Amino acid sequence: MYILIAPNAFKNSLNAPEVALAIGQGLQSSKLSCTTECFPVGDGGDGTAQLIIDKFKGTAVPVEVHDPLGRKIQASFGLIEKGKTAVIEMADASGIRLLNTDELNPFKTSSAGTGEMLLAALDQGVSTIIIGLGGSATVDGGAGMLSALGVKFFDANDSPLHRLLSFGEAGVRPYPIPEDLSQLARIDISAIDRRIFKCRIIVLCDVDNYLLGENGSAAVFGPQKGAKDSDVPELEKILGNISALGFKETGNNMDKVKHGGAAGGLAAALHAFCNAELVAGAEHFLQLTGFEKSLKNCDLVITGEGSLDAQTLQGKAPFAVSVLAKKHNIPVVGVAGRVPLGSNAELDQHFSVLQSIGHEPSGLASAIADTEANLIRTGTLIGNLFSLSTNK
């Protein structure tokens, strides 16, 4: 058998390449005679950009940026396709993993570092920029990113809204944060870096939420980034105001575009102010990396992520993998830390088998710690089960 191993990351545990290697190790130690190919996948979530860079054997470009709280850090983006395309991971500059738990506060975090990465990519003369938006720490409607590109934000007295990101450090460019944006009265795009409009910008989104409303950035993702329930209405008001004032400047509706709620509204800002294309991350990733070519060689696909459930069907990477596999009549085994206890008709349409990797009762911390061992064991189990049919 030729088995294609195409998992997403298991959040808070292993990245996608590590998951693929563990499953492959289990298969090779099983009784099944098989050839395996590891093809880790992403859907725009944290780590997707690095997968693209690795797949294209791209080069890393180091850049100094400001993290969500304004501290200077070293990050990097990738260049692929002979330097014509830049690949940016928002989480490298504006990610939640850059903060301690007690630092989470969406009123004080900025997407400015992502804007600085965009500027650095433009300095390389690229014609295309691909951005992965997963894992952000911000709900600033992209204001920090836009400010880095030259957009200005003013209050009712026409005074600029900003905070110095590096406290007391001379020469640091000021960027607004949501705490300031509650006073926003005017946006001025006249000084935006015009190079951004000569570049095709493709934004890989791992959620399809709109900017505003009960399923929007503030309501759904604000609490994940440190917002209290009582903070959500204020964040919603700030985002709605940015959207309304942005429409006056650009004629584009931030709150009417699918995926616009990704990364605290950064996706909507990129679309409205920079003419970016917002795409379903998983589908675009598989197309960009030539996934179907590998499918044509295989007899079985194994995919998965931390949890396989109804949300998987909302465009997550394992679902996108299963859709293409079904197109080629290839069976798909889905593995996860958690799968539904009962049958799910929609999931069953796309996955021939759903297999939980856990083997004994355990708490979440133990399950996360044992992920690699459980994936190896599950890979061996799958191989042994298929060997029963192939040896008949």
Notes on the structure:
By secondary structure, the protein is α/β, with parallel strands linked by helices. The chain has 2 domains: 136 residues, Rossmann fold; 235 residues, Glycerate kinase, domain 2 (Alpha-Beta Complex). The protein has 15 helices and 13 strands. The strands form 3 sheets. Strands 3-4-5-6-9-10 form a 6-stranded mixed beta sheet, sandwiched between helices. Strands 2-1-11-12-13 form a 5-stranded parallel beta sheet. Strands 7-8 form a two-stranded antiparallel sheet. A hairpin with a 4-residue loop joins strand 4 and strand 5. The longest helix has 20 residues. It is elongated. The two termini are 14 Å apart.
Output the keywords.
six-stranded mixed sheet, Rossmann fold, 392 residues, 2 domains, five-stranded parallel sheet, elongated, alpha/beta, Glycerate kinase, domain 2
What's the number of structural domains?
2
CATH class label of the largest domain: Alpha Beta
Low-pLDDT windows of residues = 164-168
Radius of gyration: 22 Å
Q: Helix segment count?
A: 15
Task: Give the topology.
Blueprint: E1 2-5, H1 16-28, E2 35-38, H2 48-55, E3 59-66, E4 72-80, E5 85-89, H3 90-94, H4 112-123, E6 128-132, H5 143-148, E7 152-154, H6 178-181, E8 186-188, E9 200-205, H7 217-221, H8 232-250, H9 266-274, E10 277-280, H10 281-288, H11 291-295, E11 300-307, H12 317-327, E12 332-338, H13 345-350, E13 353-356, H14 364-369, H15 371-390
Parallel strand pairs: 1-2, 1-11, 5-6, 6-9, 9-10, 11-12, 12-13
Antiparallel strand pairs: 3-4, 4-5, 7-8
Helix pairs in contact: 1-15, 10-12
